[in-house]
Structure formats: C-alpha cells, structure tokens
Amino acid sequence: MDYAGMGTAALALRNLKVPYQLTDVTEIDDHCQKLIKEMHKITVKNKKRWRCHKDIMKRPHEKVGKSTVWVLTSPCQDFSTEGLRQGTKTRRGKLIKRSLATLKWLPKKKRPRAIVFEQVGTWLRHKKFRRLVKKINKVLIQLKYKPRWKLLDSARHGGVPQTRVRSWGVAIHKRAKKKDFRWPGQIKCRFTMGDVVKRRPNGSDELWKLPPSRFGTKSRERKNWLVAAAQKDNFASLKGKWKRSSHAPAQSHCCVTHSAPNVTKGAALMALLGR
Fold first, then answer.
1. Which regions of the chain does DSSP assign to beta strands (E)?
2. What is residue 1's three-state secondary structure?
3. What domains are defined for the chain?
4. Which of 18, 22, 38, 144 could form a disulfide with 13 if both were Cys (CB 3.0 to 4.6 A apart)?
5. How many C-beta atoms lie closer than 10 Å to residue 107's C-beta?
6. CA 116 to CA 263: how far, in whole Å?
7. What is the pLDDT of residues 166-185, one digit of tens each?
8. What is the DSSP string of 101-149?
9. β-bridge mates for residue 51, sequence order
C-alpha cells in the first residue's frame, strides 16, 4: 500500500474475512505507522515479511518486495474541488508518478497481479485530470495490465448515509489466473442520517426542519448543523479526543490526532459503527 494512512484497504479484507498479509506499506506519518501495526497485528513473528517505508520519494525501488495486490491512494488535495486543483503541478500531486516509476522498475516476477487506485471524483469528471488517467492507463497497458475505471458513490455502493463519489481504478495483469472482474452493485443502506445524528423519538422529523438545499453555503450550513447536533446529543463522550489534522503531512492520505476540541463527521460515524 502506498500512502497507506490507516490501512483501510487491509481493514476491508479483514472485515470480509479474507486472509491477507501486509508486505510493503508506505506512510510518512509515524502515528499512522504505529496505528497500522496495532490494527493489523504486526508482531515479531511476521515482522520480517512486512516492510515499512516512510518517504515515498526517498524509497529505493529495489526495497519494494513482491506482492499480489497493490493499493495506490495518492493524496487528493491537489485534485479536489475544495482545493486549487493544481494537479501534478505540485510536489504532492506528483507523488503518484513515483509509484508508477517503481512499478515500471520492478522485475516482471515482482509486479503485483492487481493494482487498485482510489481518488476523488474529479479524476474521471474533470477534463484536465482525465488526461492523467490516460497517461496512467498507457503505462499500465505497456506493463501488460488491463485497466478499468468507474465512479462509485458511497451512498449507492457502500451502504452508508453519506454521498462520497470517488474514482476507482482496477488493473489486472495478464498472468493473473482470474482475469474476470465485475464492479459492485448497489448495497442497500442499513441506516439513515437521522440514525447517525440523533435518535429521533417516535419518528420525529425535528432534524429536517431546515429548508432543503443542494448546493452552496446553505448546504454546508445544514451539514455543519447536523454535525453539531451529533456532537451535542450522541458523541459528547468523545469531545476533545478526535480531530482531522489540519497540518497533515503531504503524503498522509488519512491522518487523525488527539489534540482537538471537537468531533469530525468521520469520527462520529466511526463511533456509531463501533459502538
């Protein structure tokens, strides 16, 4: 896994009860590395099979070992609609090129059988970033991979009450035994936003009194109001424990710290699912 963050790709395999073994993990944040070791039970017995790399720009190609699946979730800030969308013009945006350079350098026997990409929706929606996807596809095809790309929405394909459209790519090598791949279908949502934000007594619609809005400031004000309700009513015990880091390192895809006075949307949802 490059830009591993908390290692959520491996967590997905664990939740599906699929046996796995971490081999190469690249994450610049020391706290995230420690979290990965704890969550994935990196012990003395299997530590020899597990290689942890810190800065991907300083990682020698020859230090990367053989793996079956390679997950690339490069930093999204420079591609997001919430940012300046400078793309690969910034140092952080160019990190994906370093991963591709390593892939090209690896001997054929060491190359993974499958590669998974995850990035913000603009990779497939924005004309400028679709050019980057075409360049990635060109490299993959030269290395005998068959790439596929699709936009997936967490509300439709993830079964959670949150709309997060993401660009997903899957590239399978020609030497893989099973080359057939199908994108996941719709997963029915098991709970609503009201279940996450507040336990509504007797089906009360108290939370939905704000005027409906789809875009702009009103929509954000509505979201902030819902999160504030979650903090006040359900997650007061978590106050002061979690906050998304505003000074996360450039390569860290998902980083949390313990120094904050409020609870984020993600922490609120994690608290609900983990209760």
1. 24-26, 51-53, 69-72, 114-120, 145-153, 165-173, 243-244, 256-257
2. coil
3. 8-173 (3.40.50.150), 193-274 (no CATH)
4. 18
5. 8
6. 30
7. 999 999 998 887 777 889 88
8. HHHHHS-GGGS-SEEEEEEETHHHHSHHHHHHHHHHHHHHHHTTEEEEE
9. 24
Q: Please provide the average confidence, as pLDDT, over all residues in the chain.
A: 76
Q: What per-residue confidence (pLDDT) applies to 167?
A: 95
Query: Which residues in 165-200 are b (16+ Cβ under 10 Å) and which e?
Result: bbbbbbbbbeeeeeeeeeeeeeeebeeebbebbbee
Q: What is the pLDDT of residue 168?
A: 95
DSSP state, residue 212: P
| Distance (Å, whole) CA 37 – CA 52 | 10
Q: In this structure, which amino acid lies at residue 237?
A: S
